[in-house]
Write a structure and sequence with these properties.
Layout (H helix, E strand, L loop, with lengths): L20 H8 L3 E5 L2 E4 L1 H20 L3 E2 L5 E3 H7 L1 H4 L5 E4 L5 E4 L4 H11 L8 E10 L14 E11 L2 H21 L5 E4 L9 E8 L5 E6 L17 H12 L3 E3 L5 H4 L7 E16 L1 H6 L2 E3 L5 E3 L1 E8 H11 L1 E2 L2 E2 L10 E5 L5 H16 L4 E4 L5 H11 L3 E5 L1 H5 L3 E5 L5 E4 L1 H13 L3
Parallel strand pairs: 3-7, 19-20, 19-21
Antiparallel strand pairs: 1-2, 4-6, 5-6, 7-8, 8-16, 9-10, 10-13, 11-12, 11-13, 13-16, 14-15, 17-18, 21-22, 22-23
The structure holds 5'-O-(N-(L-cysteinyl)-sulfamoyl)adenosine (5CA).
The site of 5'-O-(N-(L-cysteinyl)-sulfamoyl)adenosine has 20 residues, from strand 8, strand 13, strand 16 and helix 10.
Family: Belongs to the class-II aminoacyl-tRNA synthetase family. ProS type 2 subfamily.
InterPro entries: aa-tRNA-synt_IIb, aa-tRNA-synth_II, aa-tRNA-synth_II/BPL/LPL, Anticodon-bd, Anticodon-bd_dom_sf, Pro-tRNA-ligase_IIa, Pro-tRNA-synth_IIa_bac-type, Pro-tRNA_synthetase
Catalytic activity: tRNA(Pro) + L-proline + ATP = L-prolyl-tRNA(Pro) + AMP + diphosphate
Length: about 450
């Protein structure tokens, strides 16, 4: 993309309504615009990152054997009356009447809708195990929407639902989700720690939240610092293997890590004192096993191998897709702007032309741009007639991990400059070498 042809409404001043750095940087970098409290338009740059995050979530869900689909945002109240949650959910549910006076609602989550789909089409244990998921907009009429996309009213969420014959099978589905979530967050450059949590309005007492440690996080957390040494990495995993998935759960959840909802002082005291940590975290996902809560209330049953009809065991598993943009920025920025991890960056590299209009510099930039595109990469070329200082400041704000700087002086010696946004280190090299290096970096990232 050439910046002169893009739509990137960068703000010079810090917006006064933004209290935390991710919100401030997303507004300043022209990624989002508030439409009304807790509701945002996703401008082109923000939309690009949202799509990248969504794609990673899709890839990792499907790798785990979970099946994508799409349910509507608007739901009928009748299903929620069946489960008993129409009254329980309270003021967070946005209730709407259609022209015939029927009660509708903007879905805050989808347990009822998916259970209805399941009971309409599945009647035998032979169709299990089954995990269906979608990535769809949700609405929760939060009393205090704040921090931009972190606590929105309308937000983008991946929610998946497993249906299993037995509790053991459902716990395997739970473990499988835990593994796939670890992989998902790591691909986004994040460490998200699974912590014992509370079921809230979803229900069930077996649940973990995934937390990214950050001072601006809304949750108070207590943990053994040894959990921060764990990484999943690129180990091979067989998602059908009950033992392998259970071993990962054991490895990542056996050390003390809890949110304030389930914090237990006595258990925490057993952690060696030097390793006891109290901090704040951003909840980027949550997995639940709630057994037959919905299947019993709504009659989602299957016939088992012994011919008896039993309610299925279920769980639901969510990832805060839009919240993740905020969490990634909270975890990865400096005083100049965002620093995107390679896995989610909106553009792979920036090209800065120090002397727009100079025949040689323009030609070198065009050639670099074309070479990167030819390799399937997505560069952002700042071809505006602006001072070098302004161009650098914009690139730093946008946070692309790599920048190629092209100027007449370097070109006389046959070189351009390749700069890492994260370290600030620059290296001079021929343009082809810069292209090659960027291609190599992204080849390992998918
Ligand atoms: N049905 C279950 C699992 S699918 C569920 O709704 N879980 S949840 O309530 O924990 O939401 C899943 C994730 O959505 C949360 O972990 C959080 O990352 C994100 N989320 C929840 N509320 C908001 C909000 N108001 N703004 C942005 N993201 C949110």
């Amino acid at each position: 993309m050439r910046l002169s042809r893009y739509f990137l409404p960068v703000l010079k001043e810090n917006p006064s309504e933004a209290q935390i750095v991710s919100h401030r940087l997303m507004l300043r970098a022209g990624m989002i615009k508030q439409a009304s409290a807790g509701i945002y338009s996703w401008l082109p740059l923000g939309f690009k990152v949202l799509r990248k995050i969504e794609n990673i979530v899709h890839e990792e869900q499907q790798r785990a054997g979970h099946i994508p689909m799409l349910m509507p945002t608007l739901q009928s109240a009748d299903l929620w009356r069946e489960s008993g949650r129409y009254d329980d959910y309270g003021e967070e549910m946005l209730r709407i009447k259609d022209r015939h006076g029927r009660d509708m609602l903007y879905g805050p989550t989808n347990e009822e809708l998916i259970t209805d789909i399941f009971r309409s089409h599945v009647g035998s244990y032979k169709d299990l195990p089954l995990t269906l998921y979608h990535i769809q907009w949700k609405f929760r009429d939060e009393i205090r929407p704040r921090f931009g996309v972190m606590r929105g009213r309308e937000f983008f969420m991946k929610d998946g639902y497993n249906f299993d014959l037995t509790k053991e099978d459902a716990l395997h589905a739970y473990n499988r989700h835990l593994v796939s979530y670890l992989r998902t967050y790591e691909r986004m450059g994040l460490q998200a720690i699974p912590m014992r949590a509370d079921g809230g309005p979803i229900g069930g007492d077996y649940t973990h939240e995934f937390l990214v440690l950050a001072e601006t996080g809304e949750s108070e957390v207590f943990y053994d610092s040894a959990v921060t040494d764990l990484t999943f990495g690129d180990r091979a995993i067989d998602y059908d293997s009950v033992d392998q998935c259970a071993a990962v759960l054991e490895e990542f959840t056996s050390k003390y890590a809890r949110t304030d909802e389930t914090h237990d002082e006595a258990l925490f005291a057993e952690v060696p004192e030097a390793r006891q940590r109290t901090a704040r975290g951003i909840e980027v996902g949550q997995i639940f096993y709630f057994g037959t809560k919905y299947s019993e209330a709504m009659g989602a049953k299957v016939q088992g191998p012994d011919g008896k009809t039993v309610p299925v065991h279920m769980g639901s598993h969510g990832i805060g897709v839009s919240r993740l943009l905020g969490a990634i920025i909270e975890a990865s920025h400096d005083d100049k702007g965002i620093i995107w991890p390679e896995g989610v960056t909106p553009f792979h590299a920036g090209i800065v032309n120090l002397k727009q209009g100079d025949e040689e510099a323009d030609a070198a930039c065009d050639a670099l741009y074309a070479s990167l595109k030819a390799l399937g990469l997505d560069p952002l070329y700042d071809d505006r007639n602006e001072r070098a200082g302004g161009k650098f400041a914009t690139m730093d704000l946008l946070g692309l991990p790599w920048r190629i700087t092209v100027g007449p002086r370097g070109l006389k010696n046959g070189v351009v400059e390749l700069t890492s946004r994260r370290t600030g280190e620059s290296e001079e090299m021929p343009p082809e070498a810069a292209v090659e290096k960027i291609a190599q970096i992204y080849a390992g990232i998918a």
